[in-house]
Amino acid sequence: MQHEKENTPVWLQDKACPRRKAYLAGRRIAPPSLTGSESLCDVIERTMLAYNSARLREGCELVVKKMLEPDVTVGLTLAGALTPAGLGPSCVVPLIKAGFVDWIVATGANLYHDLHFAFDCALHTGTPHVNDADLRENGVVRIYDVLLDLQDCLIHTDTILEQILRNPEFQEEMGMAELHYRLGRHAAEQEEAHGLQDVSVLAAAYRADVPVYTSSPGDSSIGMVIAKLMALGHTFRIDPFHDVNETASFVLAAKRSGGKSGVMLMGGGSPKNFMLQTEPQLQDSFRVLEAGHDYFLQVTDARPDTGGLSGATPHEAVSWGKVDPDALPDAVVCYADTTIVLPLLTHYALSRHQPRQLRRLYQQRAETMQLLHEEARRNLAVKS
After folding, report:
1. 221 and which of 112, 116, 251, 366 could share a cystine (Cβ 3.0–4.6 Å)?
2. Which CA distances in Å does 331 have to 59, 313, 324, 325?
3. pLDDT by residue (tens digit) across 91-143?
4. Which residues of 294-331 are buried (b: 16+ CB within 10 A; e: fewer)?
5. Where are the domains of the chain?
6. Distance, CA of 200 to CA of 197 (rounded, Å)
7. Which residues does 113 contact at the CB level (< 8 Å), separation at least 6?
8. pLDDT of residue 321
9. C-alpha closest to that of 262 among 275, 273, 271, 274
10. pLDDT of residue 315
11. Enzyme catalytic residues
């Protein structure tokens, strides 16, 4: 003991250090050598021990051990050009089919590019090191290193989409979930007509009754086609404000049934805010006694110090009531490219967790909205 004391820094001698063991209670970093025979899940669990690899592992474990419990309603956001990179059929569709995703908020662009797959339009791997003026001259469009034919892919998709949206069923008043559900039915029919299976997110969401939203309906080629048809005399009565309450009702229904709410945020932007604002809508607008989402996983490449929502941390979200402060130990942010993380996360979840029963929230919208209206009227009547 005397020898140990002599080798202890003076400022540490005779100090109790009551929290030392707590700080050093984490797993010892001593991974086994890789042999090449390990499963991908084993690699994630055994070797991803620090920095953002550790955040990826923690995110995978959070999803499998907590977020996929039967009583957790899981929302997924999709921001950035994910479907053109093929992450729809490779990742999102399997997650939907396994019951791991209950509702979705995506950019309109992700949903538009998803239709290429349903309509059997080709997207090609390429390189970012090209002459973009020459691409334009040759009728080729670039999304970084993904190349699309202007005529055979984009305009062909627009043509089929326009034919679909001309149907009388789209001329009724509806929210985005209903529009995407009806569009998903046509996407499923297009899949089948082309002899395809499980290539479209909208088709998979339609089959599984997973409601799909976009917070900026006009900010995509789907919105552009709708705008064109409106200019030609067609009537569209899409109510995005209905979606604000409808998505909030999903979270309320999850909590009032004794369950929890989890969010998987792939990227940031408007989809992230639209999903997270469900809690302030409940708490601030409708005076519902609530604390925030229970589980939080975000994959982002955005910095928090620029003030943008894409990089805002779950700690900051606590100040808005978006995340339950008691849930911060179950909040993970992985600073990485979603195209790297989502395939790993999907594989891990499918390998380590059995499929869940489909929640089919689309068919429960009237019921959850009634719950929201009843509680809102009761709370606002008391406050007034």
Report:
1. 112
2. 8, 9, 10, 10
3. 999 999 999 999 999 999 999 999 999 999 999 999 999 999 999 999 999 99
4. bbbbbbbebeeeeeeebbbebeebbebbbbbeebeebb
5. 40-383
6. 8
7. 81, 83, 84, 123
8. 86
9. 275
10. 85
11. 322
The first and second tokens of residue 162, run together, are 């326009």
What confidence tens digit (pLDDT) does each residue in 325-353 have?
Answer: 888 888 999 999 999 999 999 999 999 99
Q: Quick one: tokens of 151?
A: 């005529």
Q: Are 80 and 94 in contact (CB under 8 A)?
A: no
Number of CB atoms found within 10 A of residue 343's CB: 15
Query: Confidence band (pLDDT; 50, 70, 90) for 323?
Result: confident
Closest C-alpha among 337, 371, 351 to residue 95: 351
CATH 3.30.1490.20 for domain 40-383: no
CB 216 within 8 A of CB 104: no
